[in-house]
Amino acid sequence: MNGPRTRVLVELAQGAGEAGVREVLSALRRALEESGLAEQVEIVQTPALSGSDRGVAVAVYPEGVHYRVTPQDVPRLVEEHLKGGRPVEELRASPPEEPGPSLRLGRQVRVVLGNCGLINPEEIDDYLAAGGYQALERALAELSPQEVVEEVKRAKLRGRGGAGFPAGIKWEAVLRAPGPEKYVVCNADEGEPGTFKDRLILEGDPHKLIEGLVLAGYATGARRGFIYVRGEYTLSIARLERAISQARQYGLLGDDILGSGFSFQLEVLPGAGAYVCGEETSLLESAEGKRGWPRIRPPFPASRGLWEKPTVVNNVETLANVPEIILRGADWFLSLGTEGCPGTKVLPILGQVKFPGVVEVEMGIPLRTVIYELGGGLLPGRQLKGVLVGGAAGAFLSPQELDVRLDFDSLREIGATLGSGAVLVLDDTTCLVDVLASVLSFFHHESCGQCTPCRAGTDVLVRLVEQVRRGEGDERTLKLMLETAEVMNLASLCPLGQSVALPVTSALSRFRAEFEAHLAGAPCPRCQEGGR
Predict the structure, then answer these.
(1) What is the DSSP letter of 319?
(2) N or C: which end of the chain has fewer CB within 10 A?
(3) pLDDT in the model for residue 195
């Protein structure tokens, strides 16, 4: 036999030990050996794309059957499906996914996650078989750099890293910038608490990111690129390095790509764990080997970026959209999402819901749909208290705002932000004061200390919110919190200090009664236990 006839994909969840992934893998390998199928079945670990209250996600291909299994279920799965060819209906995932080439999986529309869980991310041949690098081939053979930029601009692709700035405008600025030396940098320093969408792309489909980077280099005239990855993402780094090596061997990276005369080199730069390096100018400083401190802007990276040269800095999810736009066309991309925010968005759903995990949906989907359909709703007997949308730097929303649409413009209208896309669902057992204290403690810890408003402001906010948690202080304490947050927003050097204002103001405006109850001495079990 030339190779395995069956592939079993097993989710590789963060905190795999707690999820039972290691036990399932061990049981699977043991059962395959005992049944004589070890040489016929290939096991591939892929990122987890959905959550459940039971078992580990497993998919069997080529049949495309998705399961949720515990270690005890594995022998039956091997005996009945892998050996006997009969799917085990009782173990099928619920709700089932529809395998195949369609981008639509129920409410989901998978563009950047389309290959995740369906291909072996460590094999370039799998990516090629799924249509990979066809966009690059088309661009190099048929399109000029300016035409690639125009297609991205026409698609209205907005940055998926949080700010939502149009990617095509960045690219055009670098393309028009004088000088032969330019760079493309991928921001993969995903440090926002509760956010792990980029990790799924890095681990589940690294070649799509690489293809997007090469396209960005071709479009802007850059001949060298870097992927700045969060240092803790060890598997992401390993798979990127392997994918880069494979792309070079296939002539898709390096000199004279596909005989086009265009050359592009790519390198992975592991970060050192500083949250502030997710800010693009801090990232550039760190990439140059300096301390990761924010730069004063202007000038912006498009004119003076890495080593003072014109530089495009894009997020992982942003770049992963580019191959599909170039291959399918801007009109196709514009058919998804909203008029002002086309395309899809990858959303981590976490907190007190039945099915935590990650989904990819069209821009503009209602928050209610994300929580109650894709997330399965709250746990039995629980009531919704609020939702933190956009990650730690996002806004707290009330249950009365669930019909807001999740896109940059709709959220801005109610004083919120899409940010990283994380949706943290909080039920009636949650203390909002405690959650805000956790958020402020994080920003205090991660402040680089370069500018006084952030360095001193985060310290003041942590002390004030701790007073509230202990039932000390009065209305002046809350007023001072708002004033401090506003000063930080106006005077901080970079978005780390500026973004603290949103969680503070949204929590105090929408849930002020809870803060006042603490000040009045109302008992709070969470805070009495020490909360976090």
Answers:
(1) H
(2) N
(3) 86
Q: Provide the pLDDT for residue 530.
A: 53
Whole-number Å distance between alpha carbons of 58 and 46:
10
What is the CATH T-level fold of the domain 344-427, as seen in this structure? Ubiquitin-like (UB roll) (3.10.20)
Question: Mutual orientation of helices 167-176 and 145-154 as an angle, nearest 10°?
Answer: 160
**Inter-residue contact 387 to 418 (CB < 8 Å):** no
Q: What pLDDT is recorded for position 528? A: 63
Q: 3-state DSSP call for residue 463?
A: helix
**Tokens describing residue 376:** 């399965």
For 137, residues 6+ apart whose C-beta sits below 8 A from its C-beta are 258
Is residue 190 within 8 Å of residue 317, measured between CB atoms?
A: no
50 has pLDDT over 60 = no
Domains in the chain: boundaries: 6-99, 124-334, 344-427, 432-528
Is-same-fold flag (124-334; 432-528)? Answer: no
- Find out whether the peptide bond into 298 is cis, omega within 30 degrees of 0: yes
Burial class (CB within 10 angstroms; exposed 0-12, middle 13-18, buried 19+) of 73: buried
- Alpha carbon distances (Å) from 238 to 247, 277, 373, 395, 520: 14, 21, 35, 34, 53
Kindly report which listed range (10-19, 163-172, 362-371, 519-528) carries the lowest average pLDDT score: 10-19
